[in-house]
Amino acid sequence: MALPVSSQKMGRRDAARLRAIDVDLHHQIIDWSAVAPYVPAGLRWRVTRPGGPPLARHGFRKVGVGFGDVPLPPRDRGKGHPAGDPQWVKEQYLEPRGVDLAVLTGSLLSLGVQPSADLAAAIARGVNDWTLETWVRPFECFKGSILVAQQDPERAAEEIDRLGEDPGMVQVLMCSAGEAPLGRRAYHPIYAACVRHNLPVALHLGGEGAGNSSPATPVGHPSTYFEWYGSLPQSYMAHIMSMVTEGVFEKFPTLKVVLYEGGIFWLPHVMWRFDKNWKAQRSETPWVKQPPSRYILDHFYLTTYPLEAVPEPRYLHETLQMIEGERTLLFSSNYPNWEYGDPFAMVDDVPETMRRRVMVENALSVYGERLLAANA
Fold first, then answer.
1. What pLDDT, in 10s, does the model give residues 224-246?
2. Looking at the domain assignment, is residue 319 inside a domain?
3. Does the pTM of the predicted model rise above 0.70?
């Protein structure tokens, strides 16, 4: 008997036939008991407790329309969550919207600031194996991210080495919240492991203010979700400056960094100010051999959800030119969290001359051949 289409193993994909690659799909853990068998035995009991493991959280909760226009399944499909059942996501989102591949990023956006590093590492390992067995290997349309607990960089590097050659995994995922800027040498074992396996490292906003992290802003904790969410790109500004000034890209010249859900309009300001200060203060960091903007443009990539709304398309076009968006911008849907609008509508004003690059080719450039490989 033939396998269902979702379970049939495919050969290498034809890049020319791809219509869209979504680099940010938040698959959901509906039942932690399904993850527990993949967690090391000594900490399995923490995962099987009612409600799942005790994860670091902050006090800010979404306000407004929730999932937006995302199709909602019945209770017998992932308990009604739009990202709880891989078959549902494939049939109701990927196929109708013409998305051929989606990179899974999950929903554990504060794992890197979990107070218990041992528990965080155990959760990361279990979730990675569960993702491979439940989403990636049965479905060729999904690719996984190696989730790591960055508060223990040596353990994180071990997890990258464990899964780094698996064709179903295309990047290393960390939360953007943290106890220290990500250029610090303590994190370099993570970047070394990424380079060993030719994997980008991706940061995702969402854990700021939770667990062991610093407040979400340099001046303290916000009062509302509105303020918290609006201030989140400040994390990326700090990490970019740290990684460049600490010499991460001189030490790891092939490392690529994907920044999820931060928008794009703040980046030109950071590059201009950074370059100006480097000209006057470069003697303090002689290992920074190029203007900081060059490191940023060569090593950092941004995603389209939620792309800022602008009064006129020309503002978007000018900003895309300044950040070399024809190379650095990747299509993302943030599925199923569409409270800020339809992700495809957000790219309507992207110039037609760079549309295919944003929708397909930039992702192929960042993730390389394993994005086209079968999920063996």
1. 999 999 999 999 999 999 999 99
2. yes
3. yes
